[in-house]
Amino acid sequence: SLPGQFETANAVLYSLLSSERFNRQYSYPESLVEKYNSLSLDDLSNAAKEVLHPEKLTWIIIGDAEKIKAEVEAAQLGPVSVQSMNSL
Hints:
Blueprint (H helix, E strand, L loop, with lengths): L8 H13 L6 H11 L2 H11 L13 H10 L14
């Protein structure tokens, strides 16, 4: 999907401005596929552990509480609070 990100003049301009802002080579987008392909599952897992903290997330699940509440509780995402659309 990377080539599709540069289909308009504005997209190319934004890429150049972004490279300038972050002090990257203007050819930075060309190197992304190789960089992405060189990542291992361990690389991605380690990076995710650094930035993702599921215990700090607030989950908002929309649906019929009578039908899904038991499944949501079984997922053990945390305390479940049901809000009616009328109370919002």
